[in-house]
Amino acid sequence: MTRTRTALLPLAALALVTGCTANPAAGSASDTSESSGAITVNATDTACEVSATTADAGTLTFQVRNTGTETTEFYLYGEGDRIMGEVENVAPGIDRRLIVEIPDSGTYTTACKPGMVGDGIRADFTVTGDAVRQVDTDTRLAEATAGYGRYVQSQTAALVQKTTEFTTAVSAGRVDAAKALYPVARTYWERIEPVAETFGDLDPVTDGREDTLEPGQAFTGWHRLEKDLWQDGLQPDSGTMADQLLANVQEVVDRSATVELTPVQLANGAKDLMDEVATGKITGEEDRYSHTDLWDFRANVDGSRAAIAALQPVLAERAPDLEAQLRTRFDAVDATLETYRDGDGYVLYTALTPADVKTLSEKVDALAEPLSQVAAVVAGQ
Q1: For the chain, percent helix, then strand, then coil, each to nearest 5?
Q2: Is the dihedral of CA 103, 104, 106, 112 positive or negative?
Q3: How far apart, in whole angstroms, are the C-alpha atoms of residue 210 and residue 220?
Q4: pLDDT tens, position by position, 257-312
Q5: Of 51, 62, 81, 159, which residue has the fewest beta carbons closer than 10 angstroms?
Q6: Alpha-carbon distance 8 to 18, whole Å?
Q7: By the 8 A CB rule, do 281 and 300 touch?
């Protein structure tokens, strides 16, 4: 999901849900005193002040503080704007910590995005030397990344198949069939979104919402077709949009096959997926035309749990209490989601009451707190 400056609130009483944006579990000011050796980032509305512009290869920690007035994001980009690590939805006055494994020397880019829009305030960041990869020294971490890689491959195969069925239905003008296939195809996209989002050029055109568009940027992808199907009716170029979506999805799948994931990326990805729920799905802004948000919600939880399951042997040894807490809180989210099951899918998000949304938010926040600790455990900090 490509994020926006403000959230759509489809339920007036959603104000009852608190803590989604400035969730301390996402990394709070309490992290600062524990971040010895971290590279500090002071993010304001007009500047991105990084305390160092060079670092030795290995595991890097960035401590990001938003001292501005707008919610911001911080990114570390590699070649071709591949996202090496990110922290999103950093509200004013909040600290977030980013742990990322960078074993290869080279020129990278740091970026803060005030308002969570645009290319951001960028600067070069140089990594020197080369470091031994965690997967080369820890068999369990190597097995974790390999296992998660197999999971991604299984999901991308299904993603291509279901997206093909969906786009074929759109092109043929079979509206009812396309509507039924839309949330199914997106399930596989949402499960692997942390991998898909690493390709900064493809994610906006594939999964961008209309309110996130940059000046002059065309509205394409999943949500353009969602709007055509549920609100505007199929347009003369809907078939072209469908062909473009399928091509973009196929390119994401092809690129994903060449990505070498790190164990820390698995941990960050698990957390990012639940952040997707807390900042997008929980507000109903993601699938605002179809209201199939709970399908995406379910898929994000599935993807997060798959990453944690891959890391389970490491967590069980290094942090058994944390591993047990994660299992319990994933189960709680699962149980809550099952109450909204409707056949093979879920009720429309508009069917939820404010109390339902509040309960979901509380379960997600409770899970986000232990998830925020996983990257540090995996990195050995």
Answers
A1: 55, 15, 30
A2: negative
A3: 8
A4: 888 889 999 999 999 999 888 877 888 989 999 999 999 999 999 999 999 999 99
A5: 51
A6: 15
A7: yes
